[in-house]
């Protein structure tokens, strides 16, 4: 009978930075405007050491309509990837705390799945720009011209 040796993990192995990590958080919803011009945007915080992303830490704000545009472009770019759905459109009480929180959770879940997908990390022209570029004007422009 042989004896198996037990090896304890080092502090670096337990608490060090993982080889590859990606943290995406959708938080701090803010409602802007008055009357028919009201809208809510959400902060996207990204922390990563994955080389496909240009910045190790970033923070941008995006509206729901920008998430819709982003998903449409991803769908055209990546026919081999099944994308998760966005939280549904809301037509009544869309600025209530409950609706905004439900939407925030759905947007976070969507982004975590999409940004963690290896084919999208390396093949999408707009993934990094959407998550990390605060000056993003048009996803259509990013999608048609250059890789993030």
Give the low-pLDDT segments: none
Question: In CATH, what is the class?
Answer: Alpha Beta
By DSSP, the count of extended strands is 3
Number of domains: 1
Strand order of the largest sheet: 1-2-3
- On the 0 to 100 scale, the average pLDDT is 86
Largest sheet: 3 strands, antiparallel
The radius of gyration computed from the alpha-carbon positions, rounded to a whole number of angstroms, is 19 Å
What percent of residues adopt helix (DSSP H or I)? 25-40%
Estimated structural class: alpha+beta
- SSE topology string: HEEEHHHHH
Q: What is the name of the CATH superfamily?
A: Phox-like domain
CATH 2nd-level architecture = 2-Layer Sandwich
Please report the number of helical segments: 6
CATH topology description? PX Domain
* Multimeric state: single chain
What is the distance, rounded to the nearest whole angstrom, between the alpha carbons of the first and last residues? 57 Å
In what range is the share of β-strand residues?
A: 15-25%
Report on the structure:
The chain is of the alpha+beta class and 148 residues long. It has a single domain (11-145), classed as PX Domain, CATH 3.30.1520. It has six helices and three strands. A three-stranded antiparallel sheet has the order 1-2-3. β1 and β2 form a beta hairpin. The chain is globular and about 75 Å long.
Provide keyphrases for this structure.
single chain; 148 residues; alpha+beta; PX Domain; three-stranded antiparallel sheet; 6 helices; 3 strands; 39% helix; globular
């Amino acid at each position: 009978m042989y004896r198996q040796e037990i090896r304890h993990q080092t502090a670096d192995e337990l608490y060090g930075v993982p080889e590859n990590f990606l943290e995406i958080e959708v938080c701090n919803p803010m409602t802007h405007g008055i009357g028919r011009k009201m809208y809510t945007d959400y902060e996207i915080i990204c922390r990563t050491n994955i080389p496909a992303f240009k910045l190790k830490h970033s923070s941008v704000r995006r509206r729901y309509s920008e998430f819709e545009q982003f998903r449409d472009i991803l769908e055209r770019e990546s026919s081999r990837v099944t994308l998760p759905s966005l939280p549904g459109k809301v037509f009544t009480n869309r600025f209530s705390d409950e609706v905004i929180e439900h939407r925030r959770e759905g947007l976070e879940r969507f982004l975590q799945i999409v940004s963690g997908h290896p084919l999208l990390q390396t093949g999408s022209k707009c993934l990094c720009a959407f998550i990390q570029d605060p000056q993003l004007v048009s996803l259509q422009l990013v999608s048609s011209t250059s890789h993030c």
